[in-house]
Amino acid sequence: MFRSISQLCFLKSYPKLNIYSLLSIGKVSDKKTADTSNDVIFKYINEAGIIQLNKPEMLNVITFEINRRISSKVKEWEKDGKTKLVIIKNTGSKAFSVGGNIKILVQLVKTQNENILFQGLREMYELNYFIGTYKLPYIAFINGLTMGGGCGLSIHGPFRVATEKTIVAMPETAIGLFPDVGASHFLSRLPNNLGVFLGLTGHRLHGIDTVHAGLATHFIPTNRLEEVEQKLVDISNANYDSVKEILDKYCETV
Q1: Considering Cα of 146, then 148, then 150, then 155, what sign does the dihedral take?
Q2: Could you tell me the pLDDT band of residue 34, with boundaries at 50, 70 and 90?
Q3: Is 243 a residue whose pLDDT tops 50?
Q4: In this structure, which CATH number among 3.60.150.10, 3.40.50.300, 3.40.50.10490, 3.90.226.10 belongs to the domain 44-250?
Q5: Dihedrals φ, ψ of 212, to 5°?
Q6: Catalytic residue positions, numbered
Q7: Mapping DSSP to helix (H, G, I), strand (E, B) and coil, where does residue 96 land?
């Protein structure tokens, strides 16, 4: 059983990739005793809330529990009166997030737990909307594979920072599903019918191309992300303009 939508499409892009490596992703999490407390890490530095997706061995697949934890924290930060910006990033550089955990969804369908499934999906869409209407500057460092639910956690926000390792795609049509997580909203707003093409084909955009397409707002090399993050958390009383000023300063164009 594949763990995420994106894994179903990998063999088209990487025909030499061992299929068994895809099937083994997330094997540890199948155990009932698995510790999931560090799957997503929350930090607070100065006036900045930081979300770190921390399951690199599973390409940072998003479960309903992870979604709930992120949703709860960003709502808390928006209301606390002291947080001025939020950064979401990933451990390592292989994957920001390849999206939802398909194995869990299939299990819920097979066991006829539709209420749990529908509630989880509803909460996921609510978080996508919340990010899109967030009152604080929300910066996503989409360093690595960013597919499906990973796009939902990033592209709805005002600042999306791509790197040379970024690969963005909405590959759901490969398994007969529509582009999910609010993708019909952001894909339909891309120029020259590009969104229709990406939604129908699952085509992958790499690096700087994500900026040219309008999916990312800035391109910053991986080796400068740490420096940029430090500059952002050092901003006193940050707002949209001060965040944009920092990102524009470090942004590279091709």
Answers
A1: positive
A2: low
A3: yes
A4: 3.90.226.10
A5: -60, -35
A6: 100, 149, 172, 180
A7: strand
